[in-house]
Amino acid sequence: MKHLRVLLAAAAVAVMAAACGANADETPRVVPVATTTDAPASGIQTAVLSGGCFWGLQGVFEHVKGVKQVVAGYAGGAAGTAHYDMVSSGTTGHAESVQIKYDPKQVTFADLLRVYFSVATDPTQLNRQGPDEGTQYRGEIWTVTPDQARVAKAYVAQLNALRFYGEPVVTRVDAFKGFYPAEAYHQDFLLKNPDYPYIVYNDLPKIENLKRMLPHLYIATPARLALNSHS
Length: 231
Fold this sequence. Notes:
Elements: H1 7-19, E1 45-50, H2 54-61, E2 67-75, H3 84-87, E3 95-102, H4 109-120, E4 128-129, E5 132-133, E6 140-143, H5 146-161, E7 172-175, E8 179-181, H6 189-192, H7 197-213
Parallel strand pairs: 6-7
Antiparallel strand pairs: 1-3, 1-6, 2-3, 2-8, 4-5
């Protein structure tokens, strides 16, 4: 992640884009409901998703109904390289990710993917999201169970068959390899820094789009990490 090194440049771009009426989410759109749905499940479940800066991913999913906890972190690489400076090099195999704990009686894995594909990421972007470039920003669904793999692969195939985006969905679907929480200062960064230029331009619009486009999945009070300790 290059946010801390390019703050002034990002702020300047944000001002110019806002003046031109640009949309930070690059044409967000509500994807169709998944035709392949979850098998019944009980108890708190876990999902792990990658797709751009984890500040925005965490901020969006903390506003999703049925989500109990969202942790920003790293997935795809080894434990020894799960550190901000190393992951930022793009050489560790890690992607910035979130680990989501959710109640399947309130929200399904397919619902989470609908949010992911609609407002959290642009699944046609390869090894980048918006202003962030590199394999550490790739879109990837880490399937924790065989059922999640079934749902995720079918959803990608469904969207591609519909030519929904006009371009292929390049989001990867891979078996879960491990998740490592990011440093404390990254957790709930959006909630703690709502006026940070990167957040204002790139991430707050995603939450507004969730509220506007998928209101049945939106909750106003976020599942702040400090207030939720599900494991």
